[in-house]
Design brief:
Order of helices and strands of chain A: HEEEEEEEEHHHEHHEEH
Radius of gyration of chain A: 19 Å
Strand content of chain A: 15-25%
Largest interface: A-B, 42 and 42 residues
Largest sheet of chain A: 4 strands, antiparallel
Strand order of the largest sheet of chain A: 1-8-3-6
Helix content of chain A: 40-55%
Distance between the termini of chain A: 36 Å
Mean pLDDT of chain A: 88
Number of strands of chain A: 11
Low-confidence stretches of chain A: none
Oligomer: homodimer
Chain lengths: 218, 218
Amino acid sequence: MKLSEYFPVWDQLTEAQQNMLEHSAVYREIPKGTLLHNGELDCLGMILVESGRLRAYIVSEEGKEITIYRLLSRDICLFSASCMMKNIQFEVTVEAETEAAVRIIPPSAFRGVMEESAAMANYMNELMAGRLSDVVWLMEQVMWKSFDSRLAAFLLEESALEESDVLKITQEKIADHLGTAREVVTRMLRYFQGEGAVKLSRGTIEILDRKKLEATAR
Amino acid sequence: MKLSEYFPVWDQLTEAQQNMLEHSAVYREIPKGTLLHNGELDCLGMILVESGRLRAYIVSEEGKEITIYRLLSRDICLFSASCMMKNIQFEVTVEAETEAAVRIIPPSAFRGVMEESAAMANYMNELMAGRLSDVVWLMEQVMWKSFDSRLAAFLLEESALEESDVLKITQEKIADHLGTAREVVTRMLRYFQGEGAVKLSRGTIEILDRKKLEATAR
């Protein structure tokens, strides 16, 4: 995939800037489960996702997790370059949720272009605003939606991402995504099963009644 | 207050850009309680706070509120210019929590400078990153902190803002700030009173034992 496909402002960069980005970008294939970034690792740079899926999440002092967002093909991960962003005061962890292929632009190269190009800096603004909107949306969910609708929405999202009605995901993992305890997930899944919306078996959750889940998610 | 005091990148602007901002900025005094911005009003522009205090908050469909952050003297409100920011998909409301004096730079003038100046665009990035950090912090509070520590932290913050141990704030208002119901606030305040940390009387909350509140907030 060309870099110009990631950056709609590509044509507003000088040839020197385009070359700088092209030549510094490193291609990497990443096994599932790899931690690409967390607060304590080095500042990797901008990650451009070619294929696969990354997950950005935060972790509480007690080790509870909540997923902030997922990154798919054509998405750009800003926070893996948080050393470039003044004022990012939270620690985000980015992991490869599936096997993934990415291109990484090192901080030094990207910083140079951002400092010179108002177009690129404004595009980064747009990206950041998008992430901020995601986090505000998530906070609204957490504060104001009851857990049944969050869980139903999560199962539907997961099914769309995996393109399957049979989800191979543990209840532990779902609890991590939603920032809650496994017991809470188990109880609600059993309730969904009782309603005929899903069928639970060891290690999988099958969606039986999509309409019912959609109604709950709303 | 000079505009250069708000923008650390002031010296990196051209004289034309500086003049553009200076001449377009409008001074306004704002009575307490004024709504400066909400999703449905016009796009006011960048608000630079000279004195007083603004509050940015979101509102749920059922009318519940939660404060995202407060803006004090020297702060810049980005979201009142959300028409300038692509990808801001949430509706934030900004109100004057006290009487306030502000300068407002209209969107057209600000957008022009931001599109030309990489320095300004990068500074806006920093501001946005700061807001994003605030929201993530808040989400962590909401998800992982128990309500007693959130309330204690709120009372201490309020006391610092008002520079007083006697807070003139209703329990209803506190509930709005913290995104909960008044009954929940009342119950916890009574518990704090029982512990000797505060004294409640009609319309005021007096902080008696700051150390105890600090210990709870941690």
